[in-house]
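Translate sequence into structure tokens.
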Amino acid sequence: MSSIEACAQIPNWSFDDEFDGGDETCGRVIVNLHLYIKDQVPGSTILVISRDPGAPVELPAWCRMTHNELTDNQHPYYLITLKPHLLRN
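Result follows.
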């Protein structure tokens, strides 16, 4: 299997919902993701898809800054567990 085929394969992760950032830049993905998670249940797990080459650096940094947990990652797929409601901004 080529690396292109491997990237196309979603990892065998369990998640509650999916957010596909498409081909947007990571900055735009993060803004849209921030708006998206406001309506999600705290503690839920979201599969985030971001094809931007900066995502392997920017999404983990965003998780640290927002106290959401980057549970797993395999670019372009990122598994994020949302922080408890009391800590949310």
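Note: Residues 1-6 have pLDDT under 50 and may be disordered.
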